[in-house]
């Protein structure tokens, strides 16, 4: 299903840090934006470049506006630089919110934010405060000057700051935070890949069950050099029986789209879930960072990054 775009206008812009711009968006046509829940993101269509990028909604749900915090990342593929050129009154096109990182039903919530990964967790804090939820947020940043929303969170007794360039005693001790797995606690992790990998690895080592761990990445994790080969395979479209060869250097999504198959997509990195389909036959080689192990075992598949261990994959398209 193709993305339905909405027209938005920038109604406020502030600097959270020297490299993070906070943008408030309002409907350009006077209608209301769709409601969203904490952990949701939107797609932003950068029409001049043709790029589509995903940004978490970091404002409190229910305000009527959408708030984004965008890091001007020198290693980005152009999206963050384009977003940092936006000024008051500029218009852009956005999607309705989608949420693959929602708050789970749990008695307690343990949140770990690394750098710009604070964005979805900030909305979670707002929602948990409104609900009277029990939570702790650990916010790790290299330097206080690089941390967004410090003043907003500074008076919150449930928030612990960890700045690498300050007192070593206040640096994040993941092992201590995750020492005792609890069946009624949900853990959330968002931030740079290395930060997330470290927290998730320590959680696994401590015995936390996979169902308790919730993650959302800004970029795909690095491929495993010892993983399976990326050989060619055939993708079969179940609705028509048509088969298409997927070469080693192309994704299944690329091949489907170039053959006129209606295959929605957004990030093309295996982190947003927009392109996910169901496998009806064949053995997938999962390489995404969005599907849970249970979802993968249930037959879901991200054709933008994942491949096949079998000669043919039949997809429910």
List how many beta strands DSSP finds. Answer: 18
Q: Summarize the main sheet.
A: 6 strands, antiparallel
Order of strands in the sheet with the most strands? 4-3-6-1-2-5
Low-pLDDT sequence parts:
224-229
Summarize the amount of helix as a percent range.
10-25%
Number of helices: 7
Cα(first) to Cα(last) distance is: 11 Å
The chain-level structural class is alpha/beta
Shape: globular
Average pLDDT figure:
89
Helix and strand run: EEEEEHEEHEHEHEHEEEHEEHEEE
DSSP strand content: 25-35%
Q: What Rg is obtained from the alpha carbons, in whole angstroms?
A: 20 Å
Write a brief caption for the model.
The protein is 17% helix and 32% strand. By secondary structure, the protein is an alpha/beta fold.
Structural overview:
The chain is globular, with a radius of gyration of 20 Å. It has 7 helices and 18 strands. A hairpin with a 5-residue loop joins strand 12 and strand 13 (about 245). The chain has helices at about 80-85, 120-130, 150-155, 175, 195-205, 250-260, 295; strands at about 5-15, 20-25, 40-45, 50-55, 65-70, 90-95, 110-115, 135-140, 160-165, 185-190, 215, 235, 245, 275-280, 285, 300, 305-310, 310-315. The longest helix has 14 residues, at about 120-130. The N and C termini lie close together (about 10 Å). With about 325 residues, it is an alpha/beta fold. Helix content is about 15%, strand content about 30%.
